[in-house]
Design goal:
Elements (H helix, E strand, L loop, with lengths): L8 E8 L6 H13 L5 E8 L6 H11 L3 E6 L5 H10 L5 E6 L9 H9 L4 E9 L4 H17 L8 E7 L1 H8 L8 H8 L3 E8 L11 H15 L2 H31 L6 H34 L6 E5 L10
Parallel strand pairs: 1-2, 1-4, 2-3, 5-7
Antiparallel strand pairs: 3-8, 4-6, 5-6
Helix pairs in contact: 5-8, 9-10
Bound molecules: uridine-5'-diphosphate (UDP) and magnesium ion (MG).
The site of magnesium ion has 5 residues, from loops.
Length: 323
Amino acid sequence: MTERHRHDQLTVVVAACNEAESLPLLHPRIRAALDGLEGLRTRVLYVDDGSHDGTWEVLCRIAAQDPEVSLLRLSRNFGKEAALTAGLDLVEEGAAMILDADGQDPPELIGQFVARWREGYDDVYGIRVARDGESWVRRAAAAAFYRIIGRLSHTPVPADAGDYRLLSPRVLAALRQLRERHRFMKGLFGWVGFRRIALPYRRAPRLAGRSKFSLWRLWNFALEGITSFSTAPLRLATYLGLFTAAAAFAGGVVVVAKTLLWGDRVAGWPTMMVVILFLGGVQLIALGLIGEYLGRLYEEAKQRPLYLVDTWRPAAGVCSAQH
Ligand code: UDP
Ligand code: MG
C-alpha cells in the first residue's frame, strides 16, 4: 500500500493557553472518542502556549496516566496559530485532528472526521451551524469577516469554518512548506488545496474560563487575514488615487476655464480647503495601507522562527507502538 492510502494513524493536536480548568474535563472525552475508533493508532499532542495558570502541571498529570499523550511546551505565549503550527510540525506520521482545548469542538465527532478521511478527503473541516454562548456582536462580526475575506482571497476560506478539522498527511507536508510569520491558518488550509469537504457541527459553549479572543484581538486577526491573503486594499488605494486625480483634473479645468472667461477674482477659499483636506486624507489612507504591507514584509524579512520550544515530552507509548 502506498503512503497516500494509509489511514492507520491519527494525532489529535490541542493548543492550550490557560485552560487548566477545561483540560481535565476534555481529556476523558477525547480518550473515549479515540478508543471508539477501529484500526487506528492514536496520539494526543497538547501544546502549552505559554500558560501561567497551572495548565502545564495539569497536562503532566494527564500524560502520566495516559501513555498516548505527548506534551509540548512553548517558551512563551506565541498565539494560537503558532502553537498549532508547532503541534502540526511534530505530527510525523498519519493525519492530524485539530481541536480547541475549551471543549467548544466536541471530540465525540472525531469518528465522523475520520470516516471522511477514509473516504479519501484530505481536509475535513468543521463548519459551525450554531454558535451557542456567543454574543450577537461576535456573530455579526464573524459573518461580515467571512463575507469580506471570501470576496478578497483568491483561494477559498469557507465561511464559519473554524480550526476544528482533520488534515491528511499530504496536507500536513504541504503546510510545513509554508513558513510565513503572519499565519492566517484558515487561509493557509485553503491555499494548499487537495480534496476538501465540510462537516457541519454545533459549536458548544466553553467548558470553563473565558475566550482569549477579545473583539479587539478578533479585529486584528481579521486585518491579518485580509492582508495576508489579499493585496486588494493596495489596489483599492490605486483606484482611489486615480479617481481623486481625475476629479482634481476636472476641477482644475473648470477653474482655469472660469479664470479665462471671467478673470481671477480670488474667491473659493472653501473649495480649496475642501480639496486640500480631501487629498490629504486620501494620501494618508493610501500611505497607511502601504505601511500595513510594508510592516508585514519587514516581519517576514527577519526570518525569525515561528515559535520556540521549552519542553518536548513524547508519549510514553511512542517507541513501543511504532511498528
Ligand atoms: N489559544 C492558544 N493560544 C492563545 C490563545 C488561545 O493556544 O494565545 C487556544 C485556547 O487555549 C483554545 C483555542 O486556542 O484552545 C481557542 O481559543 P478561545 O477558546 O479563547 O477562542 P474562541 O473559541 O473564543 O475563538
Ligand atoms: Mg473557544
